[in-house]
Amino acid sequence: MARxxxxxxxxxxxxxxxxxxxxxxxxxxxxxxxxxxxxxEAVCSRFNWAxxxxxxxxxxxxxxxxxxxxxxxxxxxxLNGVYTQNFxxxxxxxxxxxxxxxxxxxxxxxxxxxxxxxxxxxxxxxxKMVKDAADWAWSSYRAMMG
Length: 146
Description:
Blueprint lengths: L11 E8 L10 H18 L1 E8 L3 E8 L4 H20 L11 E4 L3 H12 L1 H4 L14 H5 L1
Antiparallel strand pairs: 1-3, 1-4, 2-3
């Protein structure tokens, strides 16, 4: 059975997540995290996306992305594909890094947006990786808080 097509809207706002294959780590060190952030920046520029929030965890990530042109799948193919190639090359690995397709939830209500931002940047606190969100260097929390 074919998988359903994703709903892609110009001006759409999405909560996007992608998890490591078998829930394994997708970042082994800070260089991996810096590489991923650089790729996100390039994808946002190339595909005219606005990144509203992000958080890198050990085995998954969260993004809140606005797609001005309705091209989420193209950008996600670039993001996950290029990062996987870089990761595999750097660590001498082959094969899949991510578990299946990324998940993208269309955010339809403005009232949900603030709660979504909180959810994304507070992930490391809920996972007991840090006590305060400001202590986690790999999210947009510090930039959001000025």
